[in-house]
Write a structure and sequence with these properties.
By secondary structure, the chain is mostly helical. The chain is built from 9 helices and no strands.
């Protein structure tokens, strides 16, 4: 059996096929359909999470994070699943990654605080809760000028509730009623 060495143009054609077709084939499933995107995995994971199908949610969110490891929302959602599964160490790890990517996410700090609390790391829990409260108490937008500030109306004072009758007057009313 004699084998021929492929020519340079033939090698180039095979190489170009590998360069362009191989990445596409990595994105296909066994049945030939395109693989789900990170967003589709994320949405499926959230659906499973709300249906309390935590293992299925974790699988979908793992795929979403694998496709987009720098997406804070994906990490935060997966951390929530770990928290519900009582895997607090992994929850802390994912909340920490989400915070590193989005440091103004108050919910991630609050949730990580609860995870720390379950791990017995109370000091870290309180630090995260304080950060969460600080982030939540900041105004979302800072007024740019005095004109903008004057356009904000002051919040009206809360209406005072009618005072409740004193305990002694209640007792006297009960005596009159025969109670």
């Amino acid at each position: 059996m004699v084998t021929q060495t492929p020519s340079i143009p033939e090698l180039t054609r095979w190489l170009s096929l590998l360069i362009f077709v191989l990445p596409l084939s990595c994105c296909t499933l066994a049945n030939g359909h395109l693989a789900a995107s990170d967003q589709e995995h994320f949405e499926k994971g959230l659906k499973y999470y709300t249906d309390n199908r935590l293992e299925a949610a974790l699988q979908e969110l793992n795929q979403a994070v694998a496709l987009s490891p720098k997406d804070a929302a994906f990490l935060h959602a997966r951390a929530n699943v770990y928290y519900e599964l009582h895997d607090y160490i992994r929850a802390v790890n994912d909340y920490s990654k989400a915070i590193a990517l989005k440091p103004d996410d108050a919910a991630a700090y609050g949730n990580r605080g609860w995870s720390y609390r379950h791990l017995g790391r109370d000091e870290l829990a309180f630090q995260d809760w304080e950060t969460c409260n600080r982030l939540l108490s900041q105004p979302p937008l800072k007024p740019a000028s005095k004109a903008t500030r004057s356009s904000f109306k002051r919040r009206p004072k809360p209406q005072q509730l009618p005072s409740s009758p004193a305990p002694s007057s209640i007792r006297s009313q009960m005596k009159v009623a025969g109670l």
